[in-house]
Amino acid sequence: MKDINAQEYNELLNSEAPVVIDFHATWCGPCKVLSPILEELSSEVEGVEFVKLDVDQHPEIAGANGVMGVPTVVMLKGGEVKERFVGVQPKEVIKEKVSALI
Questions:
Q1: What are 52-73's pLDDT values in tens digits?
Q2: Catalytic residue among 1, 20, 21, 31
Q3: Which residues contact 14 (CB under 8 A, 6 or more apart)?
Q4: Active site residue 82
Q5: 82: left (phi over 0), alpha (psi -120 to 50) or beta
Q6: Which CATH topology does 2-99 take?
Q7: Secondary structure (3-state) at 72
Q8: The pLDDT of residue 45
C-alpha cells in the first residue's frame, strides 16, 4: 500500500474508482495490526485502490475527514464517503465492506 501525500489525496477525491484510505500514525499500535490486513486485501480485491495517509504529516486532511482516532479507514467511491470505521476489524468484515464498493 502506498503512503500518499496531499496532492495524491486530492487526485483520489476526483477518482470514480473505489478507494480505501487507511488514516494511520507511526506510533499507533492498532495501526500496525490493521496495516497487514489491508495489505492482504489490496492484493485479493480487484478494482479497488488501497492507500495510507499519515495523520501526523497531514493533520488538515485528517481533520477534514473527521478522523478523531487512528486507525480510521474511509472508503470512497466517486469521491464520496461510502463507509468508514475506526479501529481494527476482522479481515472478513473489512473485505465485505470493500466488496460492497465494487
A1: 999 999 999 999 999 999 999 9
A2: 31
A3: 79
A4: no
A5: alpha
A6: Glutaredoxin (3.40.30)
A7: strand
A8: 95
